[in-house]
Every structure is written in C-alpha cells, then in structure tokens.
Task: structure prediction
Amino acid sequence: MTDGWSLEPTTASDVMAQRYKRRRFAKDPSSELEIDAGMTAFSDENESGWTICVHPEGALYFVRRQKRNEKSEANITILTNADVKDQERCICEHLDNAIDVILAQVIERGLQVDAELVLCPNIKHKTIGYYFVDVQARCMIWAETLKLSETRITENVRGFRSMEHIRYAMEAQYWAHVEAFPLARSFDEKTYNELSHAVLHASAERLTSKTSLSPFDADELDKIRDILDSLQDQLHHESPYAVCILARLSHTFAVSRLHNFCGQPEARLDADKSVWPDNTLSSHWIFLSLSVFMFGTPYSQLERLNNVWVDRTVNSARWKEYISTVYDEFMGLTLYSTVMLTVDVSFLAVPDVEVASLGNEDASTVSTYLSIIAIVGSMTLSLLLSADARRRKSESASKAAGLLNTVNMLFGLELLAIMYSMPFALLMWGMVSFLIGFCCRVFPQAAIYTRCLCAVALLILVMAVGLPLCTWWCVKKLDPADDEALE
Result:
C-alpha cells in the first residue's frame, strides 16, 4: 500500500464497535440545495461503483460488486462502513488500493475464496482492516496465517484447545457480520428453526433450572418467541429488518455457547460454575476479619458476585437478576433504617434518658447516639447504592463485565462486596448499639424482677438469633453440592 497506509486483519465485532464509536457531526452546507420541478428521484451521484445502503438502525454503509480478477467471471461482494463519498480524505482511492493488494495476495497464495470482503479504514492510524466471510461455512477468512490471539475473535475467552471451539467463535463473528450488513439477504427454514429451537430450549431450561445458561431471562424469551412467530412469514424474503433481528439473536446465543465451552470436555453446565480450578473465594485474613465484624455479609456478597462474574464473563440474565435483587435489598434497608431512626429518637425523648446538660451523658445516651449515627450512615449508603443499582439494571453483559473487571483490577472484587455490605452492617450495628443503650438504662436502675425478666428475654433473643446462624453455617459446610468431582 502507498502513502504510509497498511493492511491489518480485523473482525466483525471490531467493525461493529467502530461503527458505534464513529462520530460525525452535522454542519451547515456551503450552498442551499434545490429541488427541481417534477423531481422524483432523490439520491446522491456516485461514480465510483459503490452502492449506498442504509442499515435498519440508520447507519450508512456501501456495497460494491466486482470481478475477482481479469480471468474470472465470478464476482466478489465488497462492503465497508467508510464514507466513500468523502473526497477530502480520498477514502475511495485508499479502498481501491487495499482491494487490489488483498486480491493479489489471495491469487498469489492460491486461496479459493468465494466470500464477501469487508474493509474498515482507520484514518487516524492509517490502517485498513479487512476480513473475508464465507457465508456457507459461517466463518471469517484472512489472506495470511494468524495466531489466535491476533484475530481478536475470542471474546475474552481463554483456553482454546480445539478447532471445534474456534468454530463457535467464528460463528459468533459471522452473525455479527450479518447483523452489520443485512441488505440483500434472506433466511431459510434451517436458520429459522435453529434459532427457534434454541429459544425453546432456553425457555424450558429457565423453568427447570436456577443456574440456566440462557443469555435471556424468562420474560425476554417470551417476547423473543413472539418476535420469531412474526418473522415466520419472512422466510426466503429479502428483508434487512428481519435478517438484522435474526442475526442479533443468533449472535447472542453463539457468544453464549462460546463462553460456556460448548462441545468441549470441560463444558460449563451450570451458570455459576467455573471451567477453571482456580476460581476460589478470597481467604485473606483482613477480608475474613471484616466479614466477621460485618456479620458475614461481605463473604456472602462476594460469593454472589463470583456466581455472576464467572471466568471474567457475565451472563446478562443473571446480572439483571442480581442487580435487581441488590436494588430491592437496598430499598428495604432504607425502610428499616427509617423505622430504626424513629425508635432511637423516640427513646431519647423519654424523660430521664437524655440528661439536659452536655458533658454528663451516660452510657445509655452515648450508645443511642452511636446507633443514630450508624442508622443514618446505613440510610445514606442505601440511597446512594440503590440509585447506582437502578442505573445499572439496563446495562448489557459486556458493560457489566467491564465494570467488574475494572473494579477487580483496581481494588479487588472484595472491596465491592464490602461496599455492598455496608448498609446492612451499619443497620445491624445501629440495632446492637440501641440494644446496649437500652440495657444500660434498664439493668442499673430497674427493680430486681424487671432485671430478671429482661435478662431471660435477652438470653432467649441471643439463642434465637444464634440458632439460624449456626444452622446456616453447618448446612453450608455439609452441602454436598460444594463437593465437585474433578478429573
């Protein structure tokens, strides 16, 4: 290539990402357009051979069909996101040079490529990404030998050991390509039935398993079935809208099969199980000590986070379920904190509980003050975290995985578990402080029979609280589900 430009392999996912990241701003025209009398055709002139296409979402892309070489009558379809009408940047010229170089490499290496060619120029880095797509084989092709890490098709999945596993990665990229360029395509009964059966199986799995691998929840699957029923009339018809819908759903299921090591000996069968032996919870003494101090909530939160963020990937349906549960918990804690704050203030309003002069506070009053501070802290954190959880309810699985990856890299997932546990821990310590203040008021001054009754009630309370805690701990230790069979 000339002018410092170079070719590099790319993928359909990269092309889609660049399309959404590309920002072109509107600007006023240098001269006002005119509509001629009787004009009925409204299209821009294009003498370079590229056909203007519009994606169902509104994105602009271009298609050109040309002969593979002078000796062949077979045509090759070339697609690009680049604006070939941009004369200032000479995009069309750079694309023509790239096409000549790529096809020359194909002929030189004797490759039998009967596929579509996609070009994705990067003006800033002066590179043109490319890939071929074999529609029949549902895979991408390049004109050079590449290592797997250089193809960027793995979707952050590690541990590829077989070509069969790579096939699922290729299929996911194929559906991303079809979604990006849906014009002049149709789908047949085989493709439609594949997706319909996958949706039916996912629906049944959702109903019968709590650890379903489905990337959609039950409500979403019901809506998808309704959509597929509506698409059945579009079989063998060229409809970019129908093809785009089918490709997006198929891509989601293909990525799910890729992440779950479908067809491999170590295939994941439960969404909360890792395919790697090193996916264990933190056992650092500082975290365990804080967990005990915070009534075991951080360890429980960390376990829940690890069940959602398995092997550094996130199942979209499980993430939505988790974040919705967390949101409901925070809102519930806000209500409990409000009630407890009312109790604390009412207790201080009782005559003789709070002395009038400052500096003479007794243990009962100080404990109640500490309870109020803890309760207000719990209420404040619950409101802040519930607002954040509400915003993250609609996040995609990729954004959720990016969030957890960033938090884990910067602070560790333990810090997120501690942060999510703070509202509950502060509420519990607020209740404990209130109980201490109450006991400090009752036991030194009350009559002997009152102290005896309160002591018995306090003992019963401790036993009632300790019984479920001990039961849960024993069940957790003896749970046979934790004893995994390892080969």
Remarks:
- The first helix runs from residue 12 to 21.
- Residues 482-487 have pLDDT under 50 and may be disordered.
- The chain has four domains: 6-22+45-151, 163-259, 285-431, 446-480.
- Residues 6-22+45-151 form one domain.
